[in-house]
């Protein structure tokens, strides 16, 4: 029935029902009931405000009147990623249509072909958009993760100068190794005292210290401090609370009905104070001091580069804009790599053959890492890191908004304003993409000569062989649309090499000295809903010296 026919019918009904004497409140009640009925009939299985899309019926994920899929998503909030994987499997599809209050129509894709279309072929048509920007802006401001168009280009171009082989070499020789040594000292003390540690918390401290120092010259030294990591806990709170907003269309109101708005403000203030201190310090630096800090090669860090930036009219970035740079790069440089390492070591502890192979590899290396060693002699560890990123991508889902109408490669129509959701977590576990053993942790699938859809029994260079002196094949380059953990297309992660080298430094230094064992009795780690992929609970491990 068309909307106007429906409205006429309800108007007739209203006149009939309202005839005869009625009190004001009775009339209001009847009016509310009829309005509700009108909305139920107009939006029988989709969220209010969305257009009917009979062309998407075949790929629709159910839906309730007026609220569409909002309730189901809220109900599954704590297992949202797992529920995406299950639903794609259950419906046996790679494109799914949902409607959600506050977001409108959300088309979820789960395959490399559609991802390539969104992220590269028709990149200009899919932007982060207003909803994403306004939901995340309290924390991310207008930084690189939260911007489109010319603003995004400015961030990307300016930051890209930091990522070069020369810098990587300096980092391996300096910050990466120094902070890994500091981590080794903490682990050594835990091993001696026989006290368990939270490995996830330690990795977060390491990546924060390393990244804050090299990008903004900040000495946070969270690894060196016992007790709470104030910056880290405030930052974590803000990131998780921001993500919750995507699940709650009424967050602008509900946050003020609880302590959330207040807590969020406080958390952001703590994080901001670090950013503004770094900026203030840098603004008051003399040329001579800058020269000492940058060393003989005049190495400029991220803050130097962004402070030097000028637009066509000669305008420099304000303190607020520089603060946005700081926060965006901290989330990029701290959370992602630390979470990847945490999930990786969790899998290593569950797979003794994988652990043995890492030991065999790192035991052959010199004590201090170099660029050559990390890029050439750590193939097995690299494959293990990639496999962890496939199953546990630190940026597990993403949302884009269509600027104009479009058609996806399979023929699905997209209307301007529709959202496209893709989950790297779900794509990484999609059996149609990664084979029947997609859910299994099999580092060998990354080697040249092995197919990624490998089945355990058919593995070449199996981890389950006991060969003492393996020379592992080269690590395969995978399509970024299939392995999208570092994103794909023009917005591909700028820090991919940085993160890999940092992770390999850590693996080399800690696995050559320590063995980790999960503290028995703790729950299986599971992700907590967030913009990234933190473990819900501490990753408690007992540490033993290997030698
Ligand atoms: C294992 C570690 C990492 C993973 C899995 C990862 C993954 C990603 C993903 C999925 C995106 C796209 C995010 C989005 O558009 O919403 C991204 C963007 C980005 N990453 Fe990473 N990242 C990692 C580490 C790093 C590190 C260490 C840095 C910096 C040193 C970094 C810098 C960036 C930047 C600047 C962007 C924004 C790119 C753009 O929008 O043009 N990442 N990363």
Automatic annotation (TrEMBL):
Keywords: Heme, Iron, Metal-binding, Monooxygenase, Oxidoreductase
InterPro entries attached to this UniProt entry: Cyt_P450 (IPR001128), Cyt_P450_CS (IPR017972), Cyt_P450_E_grp-I (IPR002401), Cyt_P450_sf (IPR036396)
Cofactor(s) recorded in Swiss-Prot or TrEMBL: heme
Any one GO molecular-function label of the UniProt entry: iron ion binding
Transmembrane regions listed in the UniProt entry: none
Domain of life assignment: Eukaryota
Similarity field: Belongs to the cytochrome P450 family.
Full protein name: Cytochrome P450
Source organism of the structure: Linnemannia elongata AG-77
């Amino acid at each position: 029935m068309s909307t106007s026919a429906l409205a006429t019918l309800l108007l007739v009904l209203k006149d009939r029902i309202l005839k005869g004497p009625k009190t004001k409140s009775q009339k209001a009640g009847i009016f509310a009931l009829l309005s509700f009925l009108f909305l139920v009939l107009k939006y029988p299985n989709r969220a209010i405000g969305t257009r009917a899309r009979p062309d998407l019926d075949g790929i629709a994920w159910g839906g309730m009147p007026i609220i569409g899929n909002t309730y189901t998503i809220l109900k599954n909030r704590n297992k949202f990623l797992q529920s995406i994987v299950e639903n794609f499997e259950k419906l046996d599809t790679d494109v799914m249509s949902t409607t959600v209050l506050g977001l409108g129509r959300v088309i979820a894709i789960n395959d490399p072909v559609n991802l390539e279309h969104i992220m590269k072929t028709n990149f200009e048509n899919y932007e982060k958009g207003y909803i994403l920007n306004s939901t995340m802006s309290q924390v991310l401001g207008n930084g690189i993760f939260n911007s489109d168009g010319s603003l995004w280009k400015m961030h990307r171009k300016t930051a890209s100068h930091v990522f070069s082989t020369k810098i990587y070499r300096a980092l391996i020789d300096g910050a990466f190794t120094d902070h890994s040594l500091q981590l080794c000292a903490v682990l050594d003390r835990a091993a001696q005292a026989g006290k368990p540690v939270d490995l996830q918390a330690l990795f977060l401290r390491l990546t924060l210290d390393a990244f804050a120092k090299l990008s903004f010259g900040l000495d946070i030294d969270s690894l060196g401090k016992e007790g709470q990591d104030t910056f880290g806990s405030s930052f974590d709170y803000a990131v998780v609370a921001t993500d919750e907003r995507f699940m709650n269309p009424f967050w602008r109101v509900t946050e003020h009905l609880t302590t959330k708005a207040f807590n969020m403000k406080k958390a952001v203030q703590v994080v901001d104070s670090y950013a503004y201190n770094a900026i203030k310090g840098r603004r008051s630096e003399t040329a001579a001091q800058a020269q000492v800090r940058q060393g003989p090669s005049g190495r400029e860090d991220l803050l130097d580069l962004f402070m030097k930036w000028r637009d066509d009219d000669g305008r420099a970035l304000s303190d607020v804009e520089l603060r946005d740079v700081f926060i965006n790069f901290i989330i990029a440089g701290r959370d992602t790599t630390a979470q990847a390492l945490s999930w990786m070591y969790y899998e290593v502890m569950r797979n003794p053959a994988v652990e043995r192979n890492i030991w065999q590899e790192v035991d052959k290396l010199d004590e201090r890492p170099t660029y050559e060693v990390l890029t050439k002699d750590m193939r097995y560890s690299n494959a293990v890191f990639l496999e962890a990123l496939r199953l546990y991508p630190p940026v597990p889902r993403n949302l884009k908004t269509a600027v104009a109408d479009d058609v996806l490669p399979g023929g699905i129509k997209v209307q301007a304003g529709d959202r496209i959701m893709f989950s790297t977590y779900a794509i990484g576990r999609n059996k149609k993409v990664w084979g029947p053993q997609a859910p299994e942790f099999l580092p060998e699938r990354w080697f040249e000569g092995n197919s990624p859809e490998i089945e355990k029994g058919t593995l070449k260079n199996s981890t389950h062989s006991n060969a003492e002196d393996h020379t592992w094949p080269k690590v395969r380059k995978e399509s970024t649309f299939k392995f999208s953990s570092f994103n794909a297309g023009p917005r591909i992660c700028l820090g991919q090499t940085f993160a890999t080298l940092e992770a390999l430094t850590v693996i080399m230094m800690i696995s050559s000295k320590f063995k980790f064992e999960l503290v028995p009795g703790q729950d299986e780690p599971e992700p907590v809903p967030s913009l990234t992929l933190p473990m819900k609970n501490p990753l408690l491990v007992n540490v033993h010296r290997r030698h």
